[in-house]
Hints:
By secondary structure, this protein is an alpha/beta fold. The chain has helices at 26-35, 81-88, 130-136, 155-160, 164-167, 186-202, 300-316, 330-340, 363-375, 386-405, 411-420, 432-438, 486-504, 522-536; strands at residues 41-43, 48-51, 59-62, 70-74, 92-96, 110-113, 116-117, 127-128, 145-149, 170-177, 203-210, 216-219, 222-225, 228-234, 240-242, 325-327, 458-459, 465-469, 508-516, 545-555, 561-568, 571-572.
Amino acid sequence: MAKGRNHPSRSAEHRQPIEAATHTTEAQASILTTLQLLRPQAAVGLAKRRIGGSHDGGYVMLDDFDGVEVAYSLGIGPDVSWDLTLAEGGAFVYQYDHTVPEAPSAHPKFRHIRTGISHSDTLSPDLRRLDTLIRSNGDEQRPDMVLKIDIEGHEWDALDVLDPTVFMQFRQIVAEFHGLRLLRVPSFRERAHRLFLKLHRTHQVVHVHGNNFAGVQRVDGIDIPDCLELTYVSRDRHRFEPSDEAFPGALDAPNDPSLPELALDFLRLDTPSPVSVRRPGAIAAAKPAPGDAHTVQMPDYLVAAARQEMDRLTAQQPRTPPSNKYCVSAALLDEASAYAGQDTSALATEPPPDPWAGLKQDALAWSVRHLRQRLRDPSWRCLESPITAYAVTVLTGFLHFHATWRDHPSFAPMLAGVAANGFSLHAMAGFAAAHCLAMQQNLISIPAAPLTIGQFDIVTGPTELVSVHTAILNRFELPYGKSWDAMSLRTALADRLIGVGTDTGRRSLLALSPGAVPADFDPHVIAALRQILQRQGARHRGLIAVLPIMLRLLPGSTAHEVRFGYAFHSVGNPASSG
């Protein structure tokens, strides 16, 4: 965890505005324009108090809770100290968190619902928009509620889609905004400015605190905490005046008591001159890629966002497995069976089932059975046929997953999350290798229903890229020996991806293949994606770029050995480049 900087002195000297650099860059000016929307003011005649715990889970808010009957707590995790304070004050607290089976503490005024907060009601059965939940609770006419939101990066999408009238129902809003390092990306900066401006029109920031678990990031020369806790107060209830209060203040406390508080120097920077500032996030047109009239180079902001996302995923990967080579043998099959808690040795003499019917069965059990049968043939090879290659992919993907994750603290919660959604890890073994890149706590949402071929999970968060795990990029979705063409592939891909950009407002996509994809399949995937992008980007709507990541099952040094590799492509949309 990155360490924060020591908190600033409380002296008057440190409360004076700092002039922006004489040669402020356009990016700095744009960032500062957005950050000025977060400068706190004081509510006339009212003091502040700390609500909740003394460290992480507690927030500084205005002492204005008389008459508050309902509070919404979005994202509770292991700490409900904020909820308890509100409940003990007489408020009924709705607790929404799809990652927590039940609240860690009980109270008669708690109602815990295992539902997550999203920007759409159609992504998953356990995700809903905030305004949908307010209506379902009969609170759409209630004006004096309180909102707390800490949903680990999903706040950008979840709040951005709301009408300002929803914000106006809340007397106070305390929210954690994650991933502010991405203010260096123009498109993210534009979205952040839009959301902060919308909140600024109905509410005033009265308190700001840096979460020291996330540390400080230097963004175009400006030091900004990667996660800010902001307290908003309704403009309809109070008058506000400029404040010389120092932040962090006496009511603040470090989220992680073992680390120092974070300095908020950006609050003391002057607003740049408007004449030097273009619209936040203004993006120049992308240039065509040399030698390819049908594609465009990925815009710089997408390249930067892609690097941010991949760096984040790479950082989450706990360790590199000892080896990415696998020699398929009876011992390797026994090892996989032991991890999965299965005894498949008795299946060795059974004939293999109909190959494609096997895809509908438990993937690992079927694969082990098929490979035990093939091991009886001295001439067999790992990549001798598509169906054997599929079985090897499932087996080695499952072992790759275990080698990567089994010693990591997140492994047990990961298994528990899978089991809680009604299926076992070995039943999704075909997806394991791709999940090694991204399956970490809130990086993905496990679907509530059993996985089926072609089903995907959408990752939301404070990044420009949506990540989609989709089996349609696996050649076995369109089996060897069966008739298919680029049109049928485009239709299949479009069925899963066409709504991602238009429904979510996302501009780009990161697609991970969960199964081994032969290299000769790539041109067809890319052609299909290009057609989808042309359709979506015709009017600057929907996706403008896709990064498919194909898992490769490569031959090893012997016929019984394979290894993993990944192929990366970028597909741009010429209709969106202007």
